[in-house]
Amino acid sequence: MGQPNNERRIAANEARAFSKYIDSSPYKLNLVAEMIRGKNAGKALVDLDFSSRRVSREVKKVLLSAVANAENNHNLDVDKLVVAEASVGRAFVMKRWTARGRGKSAGIEKPFSNLTVIVQEREPVAPKRQPAAKAKGDKKSKTSKPTKTAKTAQAGA
């Protein structure tokens, strides 16, 4: 008997992975999540490999899980996956105490975070072409005022 299946919360061309209780503050985790948002999944994995931040290993695990979910559970093409969303939330804060001088104590807060990564199957977008640079002689400013040269200054005087 049981209960009916829940409705799918994301689109048909998306896959999701979620990690709870990552031992890092949401601020630090969001700096790494910001680095991969909107990027191709393969490029994001390479960027996480070469990131010097400790929390990038956890973000990489979640991204790999999202890619695996897309491939195995939703039959999406891995080469077309893009990180559509990487959201960070606050989980909880452990409160600890440390001894200080003259018999006092000070509080220490150890924050934890949650991370959700959603990958989406999209066609790769061609990069925008930069306009060709002009040569030095081609620069003409319409808004600048004409300057007086030595000859025009003598002629006018």
Report on this structure.
The protein has 157 residues and is an alpha+beta fold. It has one domain: Ribosomal protein L22/L17 (Ribosomal Protein L22, Chain A, Alpha-Beta Complex), CATH 3.90.470. 28% of the residues lie in helices and 29% in strands. It has helices at residues 26-36, 41-49, 56-72, 150-156; strands at 14-22, 81-99, 105-121. β2 (81-99) and β3 form a beta hairpin. The termini are far apart.
What is the radius of gyration computed over CA atoms, rounded to a whole number of angstroms? 27 Å
Number of strands: 3
Helical content band: 25-40%
Low-confidence stretches at least 5 residues in length (pLDDT < 50)?
Answer: none
CATH class: Alpha Beta
**What letter string, H or E per element, gives the SSE order?**
EHHHEEH
**Straight-line distance between termini:** 103 Å
Mean pLDDT: 89
Sheet/helix structural class:
alpha+beta
Report the total helices: 4
Number of domains: 1
CATH fold-level assignment: Ribosomal Protein L22, Chain A
**Looking at the structure, what is the overall shape?**
flat
Main sheet characteristics? 3 strands, antiparallel
CATH superfamily: Ribosomal protein L22/L17
Beta-strand share of residues: 25-35%
In what order do the strands lie side by side in the largest sheet?
1-3-2
CATH architecture: Alpha-Beta Complex
